[in-house]
Amino acid sequence: MIYRAEEVRERFARRGLAFDPTVEEIVRGILEAVREEGDAALNRLSLDLDGHPVEEIPKRAWREAYEDLDPDLRDALETAKERIEAFYREEARGGFLRAEEGGVLGQLVRPLARVGVYVPGGSAPLLSTLLMTVVPAKVAGVREVIVASPPRVHPGILAAAWVAGADRLFAMGGAQAIAALAYGTGRVPRVDKIVGPGNAYVVAAKRLVYGVVGLDGLAGPTETLIVADGSASPRLLAADLLAQAEHGPDSEPWLLSPDLPLLERVEAELYRQLQDLPRAEIAKKALERGGLVLTRDLEEALELANLYAPEHLCLALADPLPWLGRVENAGGVFLGEGSPEALGDYIAGPSHVMPTSGTARFQGGVAVRDFLKVIPVVGLSEGAARELAKKGALLARAEGLEGHARSLDLRR
Ligand SMILES: NC(=O)c1ccc[n+]([C@@H]2O[C@H](COP(=O)([O-])OP(=O)(O)OC[C@H]3O[C@@H](n4cnc5c(N)ncnc54)[C@H](O)[C@@H]3O)[C@@H](O)[C@H]2O)c1
Ligand SMILES: N[C@H](CO)Cc1c[nH]c[nH+]1
Ligand SMILES: [Zn+2]
């Protein structure tokens, strides 16, 4: 379906994370049950929803899965892990302590102690998501990373846990896994923060436990928005749209271009490539949620892309670099046809866990900083404290907080 820009503008501008009240009600029930009854509810729910009780899978089984893996796949996992690790080692994470008139001001930067990572496994065993979350957590220095993934956990996920250096892994999925990580049960320890994407149940559960634990964000169904000019290949564009459409019927693939013949050729290519795509039925539904959009020019395409704030923004342009300055809202940017999003999904370097549903307006993707906390340090000299106390007391009295003002008066 080819839309005109005016037909999608309002929809793009209004986008935001919407919650299905039915899902939310189910999830509230699950959270409450796990909080109240712990492991008994966790097991019951896991049996009801996933046909299997919760179990912890020991490291020995991860290593065996790794050793049994096809050597080429093992090598691909190792390369992906090394590239993610190298990318996140670059991220600044040092604190500082600055001398200030005889005293010090600074920031301590500390890794979180225990983090829960959710690795989706309902529709596909996303072993790459394990690497994309556990590796930056370990680079940040998190002591204990606990993985949750729906039973029966795919051997590829176990092997990825081995390669990434996770600490524990529980076969548990959905809202019950989020509840177990947030509240803790007899078997599952309570974590400080939950990181990772998931379906509507997982995302609703994460939102509802925020405050009991920290969150990386609410990454849900994947989406991609490609801006293309006449230089782009219809075959590659269609393949890139289908790559993300196959995630789920709720994925959203969009292509924006001022070139109508290009859009028409991509439409024909999509039908052609769908013929033998194993997940064609899923991809077709996703294609109905997204679409092809004819824009006036590339400026309008970029303006709409910023309104939409996609998880992935792909610039399939002859010369993409000069357009980077126009990008305001995106989870990640992919420059040119040689940098397809599917490479970002697996092996380019940055984590593929990126903000969806327009949350890229205010949130970036998973990175080392998600696993750190910043603690300010104030150590003023007597002279500096005396100097600042007078103005501080004035501010306190302006707020009507006499107790604060008196505390400061005593320093003068
Ligand atoms: N944005 C990102 O960074 C990113 C990355 C990877 C994946 N994703 C998205 O993650 C999602 C993964 O979803 P998934 O479904 O494949 O796996 P999932 O692991 O998130 O969900 C499966 C779980 O959902 C629960 N569930 C299913 N139906 C239920 C019901 N009726 N009631 C209660 N609970 C129910 C089950 O307990 C099951 O274990 C996809 O939408 C994918 O696009 C996003
Ligand atoms: N595109 C998904 C969300 O960014 C990540 C993924 C995992 N495996 C394949 N793709
Ligand atoms: Zn993907």
UniProtKB/TrEMBL annotation:
Enzyme class name: oxidoreductase
Binding residues for Zn(2+), per the UniProt record? 244, 247, 345, 404
> What's the short name of a Pfam family annotated to this entry?
Histidinol_dh
Tagged with keyword Calcium = no
* Residues bound to substrate: 222, 244, 247, 312, 345, 399, 404
Q: Which UniProt keywords apply?
A: Amino-acid biosynthesis, Histidine biosynthesis, Metal-binding, NAD, Oxidoreductase, Zinc
InterPro entries reported for this sequence: Ald_DH/histidinol_DH (IPR016161), Histidinol_DH_monofunct (IPR022695), Hstdl_DH (IPR012131)
Give one GO molecular function term.
histidinol dehydrogenase activity
- E.C. no: 1.1.1.23
Give the cofactor note: Binds 1 zinc ion per subunit.
The entry's function note states: Catalyzes the sequential NAD-dependent oxidations of L-histidinol to L-histidinaldehyde and then to L-histidine.
NCBIfam families recorded for this chain?
hisD (TIGR00069)
What is the protein's given name?
Histidinol dehydrogenase
Record organism: Thermus composti
